[in-house]
Amino acid sequence: MGENKTVHRHVLEDGTVIEHSHSHEHGHGHTHSHAHTKAVLNRLSRAIGHLESIKRMVESGRDCSEVLIQLSAVKSAINNTGKIILQDHIEHCIVDAVEHGDHEAIEELEKAIDRFIK
What we know:
Layout: E1 3-11, E2 17-25, H1 37-59, H2 64-99, H3 103-117
Helix pairs in contact: 1-2, 2-3
């Protein structure tokens, strides 16, 4: 199978520009290379830290309303992280899948979106 080299350019929320090129081997099972992996990991670490602080709030008997407000903030942060992952996946993997007729990758994305939205 042939190899297709593409260049992707991204502007992050803070204005940082990331450009990278990668090759996709035509056919199934390409490597997932994403521009926002570091940002996603940072967001997940913050959400984990936030959840730990909420756990301590519950352990110390803090007001239920305060706990719910903090839980809502974590839910929002996780949803936003999911959106970044989804955007990255569409820009890299799904564009490639469409170009190469990889219907299985598109079906997997549809299933993942369905679970994420529930």
